[in-house]
């Protein structure tokens, strides 16, 4: 009994780590730009496939695969800013929120389909994964899960340092708090937007590698983590990074236990009920800033 | 309801006087075209595609009513459409009803479902609504696809309550096959065209009603509108229910027309097609969804040649058109008309430039 409980716990923590990484990318963009990036799933997938190409087709070492995932994710984020977001920001501010959502939906489909046309629909094995199990008494810890949790913890630390200690991070936080005030203080807001999208693209790339190492590479790879990340963002309150991470781990553990207790198909629906319950109780999320101008 | 505190008579009279001429002309033209169409189209394939396009136009017009006019960014549109289709199929399948009898009860059931969804979602705004409705639609899809428990035995095969990954088939039809024999498709075309016409008429009435004005007020200046007693939540919930009625009615007719319904219509690409239609045609314009349907279904037929690049093309069309023309083709036409009018009006004075926007805006 105890070992089943422990393996459910390990599974929950691992998926929690993955969701946390996906959530951070989304939440960062929403918090600083008020933009919901529906193409995030496709960026995750892009990262996974970039790592696959670099290590399998080109035969490069594992760290180059990681670098490729980061690079392609960051490039996708940068291009998204240059081609879409920059142009939409020129229009009326009131319509930006919904327009950018529709536009990124389109980009997401196009990107996912490009990957499908390039690599084909059959699932591929992610070469950047480690086999083997660490035996600790009654506990079986697959190395893959340990790697994922470690990578995610390191990424969290890097992002926290980037946001907390660097000049760029200060600019991002200032823009998130108040765009107009930041601009008046001389923060180049458009450059901040560009940086945020590049950063979230890079995070998405790594997240894609991690997700595909747990399952397999397939074009709709990113959709499931993204949908769950959306839910976690909503529960935590969009734009709140520490809250999003907490919600990701909490909900992933809940999901793992429900899937164990009631069967896999009830995992997602029960998450949804939790979200709806939370939102009825607190309309802007558990840790969200209460919007005074809500109407 | 609070929204009725608007000066109803005056506003609608003014609306009638200024907007109707062009809209009436377009309507008459469309009705004539719809009646003439079966006489000119021989190909069963083309007529079938036109019927499908009418379904798209109906769903898109209701999504446009929700998003373009009421400002509810709901991604559960196909879920509600599917609910109507499934409810119709299930009533016929389990109780042996005639399709005609099942349509309205199924649509009413769907309204109840949408009101529950609305109660959960519409206290929120903007992206929260989008995310929650997307999650609800996805949950519905997952629950249907993963349904494996036997509910009834049909012959020697097991049938799930929701039809599982296969869905329902052969639960009845409109009776047009028995009535018109080889020309049954024309009969179905007439039914779907009538559905579209009724939906558009109701949509027009809603857009021009005090509620439509309330939404315009909420969009122009939310603070002032709320202070004047416009209740956003109530008004949005009402529109959510109304649009769910027509959407799910279309879903029921869709199920009866194809004599089949499956979880495939809940897929993301179907939803994207509806969004693309609305965006290309013009969000928040009355004729936008129809224009978008014509353009996109035609583009889709052309891209059918390109086969696998179809979805890619669709995604790019969505992204490019929202960047280049945020108000869609109808909005661009409106800009053009406004520009021409200003040019003509310039010598006379600025009076005409202030005249109301073109149809449906």
UniProtKB/TrEMBL annotation, chain A:
Q: Name one GO molecular function term.
A: transmembrane transporter activity
Which GO cellular component terms are attached?
plasma membrane
Q: Topology with regard to the membrane? A: Multi-pass membrane protein
- Residue ranges spanning the membrane: these are 6-29, 41-60, 66-88, 100-121, 141-163, 192-217, 229-254, 266-284
- The protein's superkingdom reads Bacteria
Question: Which parts of the chain are coiled coil?
Answer: none
**Principal subcellular localization:** membrane
Question: Where can this protein be found?
Answer: Cell membrane
Tell me which InterPro entries the record gives: ABC_transp_permease, BCAA_transport_permease
The record, for Pfam families, names: BPD_transp_2
Entry keywords, A to Z: Amino-acid transport, Cell membrane, Membrane, Transmembrane, Transmembrane helix, Transport
A GO BP term here is: amino acid transport
- Tell me which family the UniProt entry assigns to this protein: Belongs to the binding-protein-dependent transport system permease family. LivHM subfamily.
Q: State the name under which the record lists this protein.
A: Branched-chain amino acid ABC transporter permease
Q: Name the species this protein comes from.
A: Pararhizobium antarcticum
UniProtKB/TrEMBL annotation, chain B:
Does this entry carry the keyword Metal-binding?
no
Q: How does it sit in the membrane?
A: Multi-pass membrane protein
Q: Does the keyword Flavoprotein apply?
A: no
Kindly state one GO CC term assigned in the UniProt record.
Answer: plasma membrane
Top-level taxonomic group: Bacteria
Query: Major location, coarse class?
Result: membrane
Listed name of the protein: Inner-membrane translocator
Q: Which GO terms describe its molecular function?
A: branched-chain amino acid transmembrane transporter activity
| InterPro entries the record matches | ABC_transp_permease, LivM-like
Q: Which species does the entry assign this protein to?
A: Pararhizobium antarcticum
Q: Where in the cell is it found?
A: Cell membrane
Q: One Pfam family this chain carries?
A: BPD_transp_2
Q: What residue intervals traverse the membrane?
A: 21-40, 103-122, 127-144, 186-207, 237-259, 271-299, 311-330
**Which terms are listed as keywords in the entry?**
Cell membrane, Membrane, Transmembrane, Transmembrane helix
């Amino acid at each position: 009994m105890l070992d089943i409980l422990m393996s459910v716990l390990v599974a929950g923590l691992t998926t929690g780590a993955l969701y946390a990484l996906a959530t951070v990318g989304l939440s960062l963009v929403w918090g600083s730009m008020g933009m919901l990036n529906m193409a995030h799933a496709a960026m995750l997938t892009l990262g996974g496939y970039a790592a696959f190409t670099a290590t399998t087709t080109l035969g490069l070492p594992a760290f180059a695969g990681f670098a490729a995932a980061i690079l392609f994710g960051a490039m996708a984020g940068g291009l998204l800013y240059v081609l879409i977001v920059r142009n939409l920001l020129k229009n009326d501010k009131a319509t930006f929120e919904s327009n950018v959502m529709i536009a990124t939906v389109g980009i997401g489909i196009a990107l996912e389909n490009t990957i499908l046309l390039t690599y084909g629909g059959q699932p591929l094995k992610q070469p950047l994964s480690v086999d083997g199990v660490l035996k600790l008494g009654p506990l079986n810890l697959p190395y893959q899960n340990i790697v994922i949790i470690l990578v995610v913890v390191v990424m969290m630390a890097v992002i926290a340092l980037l946001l907390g200690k660097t000049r760029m991070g200060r600019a991002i936080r200032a823009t998130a708090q108040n765009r107009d005030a930041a601009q008046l203080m001389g923060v180049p807001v458009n450059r901040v937007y560009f940086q945020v999208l590049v950063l979230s693209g890079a995070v998405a790339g790594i997240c894609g590698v991690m997700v595909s190492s747990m399952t397999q590479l397939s074009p709709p790879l990113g959709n499931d983590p993204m949908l769950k990340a959306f839910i976690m963002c909503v529960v935590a309150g969009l734009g709140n990074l520490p809250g999003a991470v907490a919600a990701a781990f909490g909900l992933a553990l809940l999901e793992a236990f429900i899937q164990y207790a009631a069967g896999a198909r009830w995992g997602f629906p029960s998450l949804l009920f939790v979200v709806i319950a939370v939102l009825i109780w607190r309309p802007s999320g558990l840790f969200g800033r209460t919007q005074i101008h809500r109407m | 309801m609070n929204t009725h505190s608007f000066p109803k008579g005056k506003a609608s009279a003014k609306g009638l006087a200024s907007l109707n001429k062009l809209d009436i002309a377009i309507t008459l033209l469309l009705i004539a075209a719809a009646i003439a169409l079966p006489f000119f189209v021989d190909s069963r394939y083309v007529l079938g595609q036109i019927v499908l396009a009418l379904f798209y136009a109906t769903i898109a017009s209701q999504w446009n009513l929700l998003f373009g006019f009421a400002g509810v960014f709901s991604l559960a549109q196909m879920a509600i459409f599917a609910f109507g289709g499934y409810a119709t199929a299930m009533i016929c399948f389990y109780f042996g009803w005639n399709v005609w009898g099942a349509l309205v009860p199924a649509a009413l059931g769907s309204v109840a479902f949408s009101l529950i969804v609305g109660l959960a979602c519409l206290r929120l705004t903007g992206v929260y609504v989008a995310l929650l409705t997307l999650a609800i639609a996805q949950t519905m899809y997952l629950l249907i696809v993963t349904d494996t428990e036997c509910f009834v035995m049909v012959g020697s095969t097991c049938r799930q309550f929701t039809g599982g990954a296969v869905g329902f088939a052969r639960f009845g039809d409109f009776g047009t096959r028995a009535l018109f024999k080889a020309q049954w498709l024309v009969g179905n075309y007439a039914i779907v065209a009538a559905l579209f016409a009724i939906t558009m008429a109701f949509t027009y009435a809603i857009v021009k009603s005090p509620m439509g004005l309330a939404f315009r007020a909420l969009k122009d200046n939310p603070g002032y509108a709320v202070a004047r007693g416009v209740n956003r939540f109530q008004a949005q919930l009402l529109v959510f229910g109304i649009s769910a009625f027509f959407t799910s009615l279309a879903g029921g007719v869709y199920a009866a027309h194809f004599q089949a319904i499956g979880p495939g219509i809940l897929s993301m690409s179907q939803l994207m097609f509806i969004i693309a239609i609305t965006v290309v045609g013009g969000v928040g314009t009355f004729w936008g969804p129809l224009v978008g349907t014509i353009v996109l279904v035609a583009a889709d037929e052309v891209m059918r040649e390109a086969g696998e690049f179809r979805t890619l093309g669709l995604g790019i069309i969505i992204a490019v058109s929202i960047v280049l023309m945020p108000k869609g083709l109808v909005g661009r036409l409106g800009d053009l008309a406004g520009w021409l009018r200003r040019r003509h009006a310039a010598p006379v004075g600025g009076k005409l430039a202030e005249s109301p926007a073109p149809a449906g805006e």
